[in-house]
Every structure is written in structure tokens, then in C-alpha cells.
Design goal:
Elements lengths: L8 H17 L10 H13 L9 H11 L3 H20 L3 H11 L2 H6 L8 H8 L15 H23 L2 H12 L5 H17 L3 H14 L4 H14 L2 H16 L16 H4 L3 H6 L5 H14 L3 H16 L2 H4 L11 H14 L3 H15 L7 E4 L13 H33 L3 H15 L2 E4 L2 H6 L3 H23 L3 H14 L4 H13 L3 H13 L2 H4 L11 H7 L4 H19 L1
Parallel strand pairs: 1-2
Length: about 575
């Protein structure tokens, strides 16, 4: 409540500076909001000089104080408060405000000595050009302005590097992040900067440089596990499966253990870079995976690479984690690498089938079928293209909700029918053709729930992804059931299934080849030869329409549907055609 007085203001501003530093440094959270203490300090300075500025914004207040207050004893305390204000604005990502403030804090001599040349970053140039006034030895500081300047330079480079990285300006981002890496920060932050450098290099298409940065991050702070997960992604991109799996296994082991204290700097500062730089981009790049996510990645990569035994082990471990309440531990949101749980079950079934554990695969699929039974309506009407309505217009909340419900129903139907499809193939592998036919028929019966409405051409060329998956499941079920009919000598029924398969996917090479075989077994050799000639003359592009990538759990079924007797059938038909030509002549 004492009136402001010029003789005591240097001490008052120094106490304010120290108290704000203690307030920030003793809290575990990042700097947020406005620094009201700084504003009150500036108003006290104006009051002592016989001026006021209550109605001014903080930026205007700084302009008024630095232009009108010329008392020499106040310059150093005001510069310190200015650096502290810059820390608050940096945390709020108000880079323009910081640049304006340091243009006022820097003298003409400073800006002339280190003027921003073309290609240099303006804010970093202003921060580096700023000359900290000499401190009075009688006023102790908990953190001097020179240290604060170094931290501001590092944080400004780091923050702008992240912004450029998010904007896709990778060369600029790389330069700024390299500037930050050479700055003043703790080992923990330095490891984070190297991780961001690795991600930037990866997006620039430089995987080897990315790996160098990521390895450097781990050398600086071995607890920087996001660097390990990004390294696994780079090895995946390079196709180095063995190394990728080793890194994922190491990451899983590290996540399972209780982490020791993170690396830190040798000296303690109240204002640190980690308090100033906190953006969604940084949060995304440094996201820590849950151990179960890494376990799933191990399972998925092994399955994709044909390491069936390892894949089965990892999938079963993951399913065991599900029993322990995984869904409560990991939010299955857009940031998670985990797919929907039924898809994981189906991938596990696929791995079990490939490992020859067909009965176990049937059991896993039964769980998917059981859990999705009550989630599917009796009839699903699909109007033209669903993806056109993924982002409904404002005010269309009800329509958006109905669309979301319809898409969810289609997903549930895909999982349920895929369960039947896998069971059909599993029973076929066990030599139980009749049971296999039953499961394929259940799959096809369920698929009758979907009714496609819209122009025929559009429905064929622009299928929504959910419906495209269902159409592929329908094709694979028809081929699978047709194959079992052939096994049982029921050639006419097999022929009908292959014909329906070609209606679902015109030109499909597997369905067309099996159709030729069925015609041949029915002694309709002339028709078989005509169909074979048509098939052999068609190009691969005509045989298989390009579509979206299919779910991993369908890949095994696709392999099972491939016609295995192409060369034998071709030889037989060519021999027939040769004989027919001789008879005609």
C-alpha cells in the first residue's frame, strides 16, 4: 500500500522478479495465463514517474514504460522484467509480442551490431542482439538475466522449429531445431529436440539421418522412449524387419519396467525450456506408448512378415492383457496405435490358422461372433457414398449421429462375417467340408442384410470402405464355399457360387479360374475353354480392380482363395483346344 518511489523501485522490481521466478520454478506445470505481477510492477514504475496506464494492454504498457522512463537505475530491473515477460509470452506462443518487446529493449547500437540478415530468424536475431544491462552487486538474483536470455533463445528456436515442422516447412524446421540443440537446456529437453530432429529428417525422406538424431537422443537421455518408438517406425520404413522387431522388443521391455528418474541438467534453474515449450505437436511427437500398444505392434509386424509362431505368441499375450482390463488402461482414441478390439481378435485367428491351430482359431472367431450378434440391425440400407457424409454440416447433428451409427453397424457386420469366413477356412483345413460350407453359408446369409442403393456404376466404382470390405468377404466366402462343393463333387452348386463371385467382383482371377474348373468338371469343356481364353487375354488391371487396402485379418483368406492349379488347367485346356482344332480341320 506504500506509494511508489523512484529510490526504492530498483529493489521493489528485483523482489518482484525473484518472487515470480520462485512462483514459476516451484510449480510442476508449464507457464500459463498472464503475468499480473509484471503488469502491477510496470504500473508502479509509471506511478513513480507521475504517469498512469491502467487502461492500456500489457503490450502498450511496455511500450509506454520503455519509451518514457529513462531513469538509469531502472534500466536493469526493467530489462530483467522484460525477459521474464518474454518467457510468459513464449509459453503462450505470442512470438510477435516478444519481437516487439525486444525491439524496444535493444538499443540502436545492439540492433546494428547483429542486424537480422536475409535467411536469419528475426526473433532469434533480436534475442541474441539484446545486451543485458550491468547488474548491481548489492541486489541478489535467483536467476540472472544472461541465463534467462540463453534459455529464451533455446526455447524460441525449439518452439519455432516445432511450428515449422507442423506447417511442413521441413528445411526451416531442421535449421531451427539444430539451433535449439546447440542451446542452453537440460539433457531431457535436448533428447526431445533430437527426437524432433529425427522426425523432421524422416519426413524429409532422409531415414539414415533420422536414425542418427534418434540415436543421439537416446545417448543424451536413455529414458527418452519416444525416440525408440520413432526409430522402430524408421526401420519399418526401411524394410529392416529384424532391427525393427528388436527395437520394439526393447521398447516393450523398457515400458514394462518402472522408469528411473529422467536425466536433468547439472545445475538447477527456476525458468527452464520445458516450462516454455508445450504445444500439441510436441505432445504428439513425444507421446509415450502403453506397453500393450507395443505388444500389438510386435504381433502385427510378425504376422505381416510371416513370422507366424512369434505372431501367435504376441497376439495371445495381448489377448491376455485384454482380460486384465486393458480397455480401462488405454484410451482407444485417435492417438492410439491399437485397432478396434474385434480386429485384433480376427488377426489373432488369422495367425492361429497359419500356425495350424485351426480349432483355436475357431474359438477366437466364435468370441467375435458372439459379441457382435446384438449390435447389427436386421437390415442395413447404404445410400450412395458414406464418406461424403463423414463431416455433416452444422446443425445436422441427428444426421451425423445416424451416419455414425450406420458406419458402426457396417463395421460390426464386417467383423461378424469375417469371423464366419475364418471359421469356414479353418474347418476346411480340418477336412470338415460340410461344416466349412455351413460357416461360409452363415457368412453369406448375414451379408444379405446390406442393401446397396444408388447408381450401379457409382456403387461399383465408389464403394464406401466398409462396404468394400463386406464385398471382399462376400467374394471370399463364395469362393471358399464353391471350393468345398467341388471337394464334395457338387459341381453345379460350385459353379453357381463362382458365377455369383464374378458378379460381386467382375474379372476376379480366382473366381474366374475356379469357374473354368467347375465347367470342366461338368463336362462343359467348350464353355470352360472360352472362359479360360477370356481370362488369359485380360490384363491384370482388368482382373483385379484397384481398391483401398484391406484389413490385415483378410490377407490369409485372400491367400487361401488363390487358384492353385493354373498351370495344370492351362495345359489341359490348351491340349483340348489343339485337339478340337485338328478335328475341325
Amino acid at each position: 500500500g506504500l506509494p511508489a518511489a523512484l529510490p526504492t523501485l530498483p529493489l521493489e522490481l528485483t523482489v518482484l522478479y525473484n518472487s515470480l521466478l520462485f512462483t514459476v520454478g516451484t510449480s510442476d506445470s508449464a507457464i500459463e495465463g498472464e503475468a499480473d505481477g509484471i503488469r502491477q510492477g510496470l504500473l508502479r514504475v509509471l506511478e513513480a514517474c507521475g504517469a498512469c496506464g491502467q487502461d492500456l494492454s500489457t503490450e502498450k504498457l511496455w511500450q509506454k514504460v520503455l519509451r518514457e522512463v529513462t531513469v538509469k537505475e531502472l534500466q536493469a530491473p526493467l530489462h530483467r522484467l522484460g525477459a521474464l515477460q518474454a518467457a510468459w509470452w513464449l509459453a503462450a506462443r505470442r512470438l510477435g509480442s516478444i519481437a516487439g518487446l525486444f525491439q524496444l529493449l535493444s538499443t540502436d547500437e545492439d540492433t546494428g551490431r547483429d542486424r537480422c540478415s536475409e535467411g536469419q530468424n528475426e526473433l532469434l536475431s533480436l534475442l541474441k542482439a539484446w545486451q543485458v544491462p550491468a547488474e548491481r552487486a548489492s541486489l541478489p538474483l535467483v536467476q540472472n538475466a544472461e541465463e534467462l536470455k540463453e534459455i529464451l533463445c533455446t526455447a524460441a528456436a525449439f518452439l519455432q522449429g516445432l511450428q515449422e515442422l507442423e506447417a511442413g516447412n521441413f528445411p526451416t524446421a531442421l535449421s531451427l531445431l539444430q539451433e535449439a540443440a546447440g542451446g542452453f537446456c537440460s539433457k531431457k529437453v535436448l533428447a526431445q529436440i533430437y527426437t524432433c530432429l529425427g522426425c523432421c529428417a524422416q519426413r524429409m525422406g532422409k531415414p539414415q539421418i533420422a536414425l542418427q538424431h534418434l540415436k543421439r537422443a537416446l545417448q543424451v537421455d536413455f529414458q527418452c522412449l519416444p525416440a525408440l518408438s520413432h526409430a522402430a517406425a524408421v526401420y519399418h520404413e526401411l524394410g529392416e524387419v529384424d532391427t525393427e522387431l528388436q527395437v520394439l522388443a526393447l521398447l516393450y521391455e523398457a515400458l514394462e519396467k518402472k522408469p528411473p528418474a529422467s536425466a536433468s541438467s547439472s545445475s538447477y534453474f527456476l525458468i527452464q525450456t520445458e516450462l516454455l515449450v508445450h504445444t500439441p505437436m510436441l505432445t504428439s511427437l513425444l507421446r509415450h506408448h502403453h506397453p500393450s500398444e507395443v505388444k500389438y505392434l510386435l504381433a502385427q509386424r510378425c504376422l505381416q512378415d510371416g513370422r507366424v509362431t512369434d505372431a501367435v505368441e504376441h497376439y495371445l499375450d495381448f489377448l491376455a492383457l485384454l482380460q486384465e482390463g486393458l480397455q480401462q488402461q488405454v484410451p482407444l482414441d485417435g492417438n492410439s496405435t491399437l485397432p478396434r478390439i474385434p480386429e485384433v481378435f480376427l488377426e489373432a485367428a488369422s495367425a492361429l490358422e497359419q500356425a495350424g491351430r485351426h480349432q483355436d482359431a475357431i474359438t477366437v472367431c466364435e468370441e467375435v461372433i458372439r459379441r457382435t450378434t446384438d449390435l447389427i440391425p436386421r437390415m442395413l440400407r447404404v445410400e450412395e457414398r458414406l464418406e461424403q457424409l463423414e463431416c455433416p454440416l452444422p446443425g445436422a447433428g441427428l444426421a451425423g449421429g445416424l451416419l455414425s451409427q450406420k458406419k458402426e453397424s457396417l463395421c460390426c457386420l464386417a467383423w461378424r462375417t469375417a469371423g464366419y469366413l475364418h471359421q469356414g477356412w479353418a474347418w476346411a483345413k480340418l477336412g470338415q467340408s460340410k461344416e466349412a460350407i455351413t460357416q461360409f453359408s452363415r457368412c453369406l446369409s448375414d451379408l444379405l442384410r446390406v442393401q446397396l442403393h444408388g447408381p450401379a456404376t457409382e456403387l461399383i466404382e465408389n464403394l464406401p470402405p466398409e462396404v468394400e470390405v463386406l464385398q471382399k468377404i462376400r467374394l471370399l466366402s463364395l469362393i471358399g464355399r464353391g471350393m468345398q462343393f467341388l471337394e464334395l463333387g457338387r459341381h453345379k452348386e460350385a459353379l453357381l457360387d463362382f458365377q455369383h463371385g464374378l458378379q460381386v467382383s467382375p474379372g476376379d482371377p480366382a473366381a474366374a479360374s475356379y469357374l473354368v474348373q467347375a465347367l470342366w468338371k461338368l463336362d462343359r469343356k467348350q464353355e470352360a475353354a472360352a472362359q479360360w481364353q477370356k481370362l488369359s487375354q485380360s490384363s491384370p488391371g482388368e482382373q483385379e480392380r484397384k481398391g483401398r487396402s484391406l484389413p490385415l485379418y483378410l490377407f490369409f483368406c485372400l491367400e487361401q482363395a488363390v487358384f492353385p492349379y493354373s498351370e495344370t488347367l492351362a495345359s489341359t485346356i490348351q491340349e483340348y483346344l489343339g485337339t478340337a482344332a485338328q478335328d475341325t480341320s
